[in-house]
Recover the amino acids of this structure.
């Protein structure tokens, strides 16, 4: 497949999706201050970001509202408190996890909501349930995406069948998701070709959501970008679960569209991200996440290892390796 664009050009189809609150919320249980979220919203507008993902539409029946911040549930009124009428070019998105959302009760008509896009996160084995949510949201007037998680664990036959099923649906965007941060640029290139073939066949846009376990989130994002992937997820200072994601400041520094501006992001980092680190919030590349990424495993063990302040990396590696045998 021929690469699209060059280092000195830009493609107008590129959209940057800020996932700082949603993926970053997995680090602090979504306990961000309103000032943090409001400042990020204004920063995204100034930086030319195309979408801001506020968090999840999670079920209040399944999750204790007293243990999480408001962005675990993304009540429309809470979003309105931040964005008002959102008379800007920035679009608002939220994520709905299959099996963890009461979408029929919590997602209202688009005409009555500040949200523009519903992104549905699913595994291969729950694609039919994901399509049910997509069809519901499409009828309500929303843009939709399906984010196929843990694709590094899927076999080609299952993935091909899933893409064919999704391609025939009403979904707008299909996302490659490197949930474990285990994939290398060459592998991402092959996946991008597969997804883009589906997108071309069924007129779908393709996106990328990368994790930074092996410090490849940025490399994998721009590799798929050159192949033709259009929707690029990122977080400020890589703030996100475990090893974090593709850093927004790196991505904006790479993209050549003059509408993107890195300076407001740098100001936000000075004001808010430095403070989060000083307060003890931990995320980003580290040896435990490298090891789970290298072995293509969920980062939950690395998260616990880090939480316990362990440094016996060799023992941890042996533990992870034994799980593979």
């Amino acid at each position: 497949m021929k690469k699209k664009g060059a280092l000195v050009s830009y493609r107008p189809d590129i959209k940057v999706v800020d996932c700082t609150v949603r993926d970053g919320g997995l680090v602090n249980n979504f306990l961000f201050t309103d000032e943090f979220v409001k400042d990020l919203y204004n920063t995204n507008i100034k930086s030319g970001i195309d979408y801001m993902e506020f968090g999840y539409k999670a079920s209040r029946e399944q999750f204790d509202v007293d243990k999480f911040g408001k962005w675990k549930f993304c009540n429309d009124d809470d979003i309105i408190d931040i964005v008002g009428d959102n008379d800007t070019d920035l679009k608002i998105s939220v994520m709905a996890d299959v099996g963890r959302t009461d979408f029929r009760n919590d997602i209202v008509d688009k005409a009555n909501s500040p949200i523009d896009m519903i992104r549905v996160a699913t595994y291969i084995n729950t694609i039919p349930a994901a399509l049910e949510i997509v069809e519901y949201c499409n009828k309500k007037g929303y843009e939709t995406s399906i984010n196929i998680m843990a694709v590094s664990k899927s076999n080609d036959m299952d993935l091909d069948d899933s893409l064919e099923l999704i391609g025939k649906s009403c979904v707008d965007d299909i996302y490659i998701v490197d949930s474990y941060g285990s994939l290398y640029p060459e592998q991402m290139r092959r996946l991008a070709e597969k997804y883009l073939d589906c997108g071309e066949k069924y007129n779908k846009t393709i996106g990328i959501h990368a994790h930074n376990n092996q410090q490849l989130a940025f490399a994998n994002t721009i590799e798929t970008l050159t192949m033709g992937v259009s929707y690029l997820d990122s977080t400020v200072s890589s703030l996100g679960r475990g090893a974090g994601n593709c850093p927004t400041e790196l991505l904006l520094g790479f993209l050549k569209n003059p509408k993107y501006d890195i300076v407001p992001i740098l100001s936000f980092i000075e004001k808010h991200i430095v403070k989060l680190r000083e307060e003890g919030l931990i995320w980003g590349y580290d040896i435990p996440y490298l090891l789970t990424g290298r072995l293509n495993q969920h980062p939950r063990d690395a998260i616990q290892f880090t939480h316990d302040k362990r440094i016996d990396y060799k023992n941890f590696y042996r533990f992870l390796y034994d799980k593979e045998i």
User: Anything to note?
Assistant: The mean pLDDT is 96. The two ends are 36 Å apart (CA to CA). The CA atoms of residues 36 and 148 lie 29 Å apart.
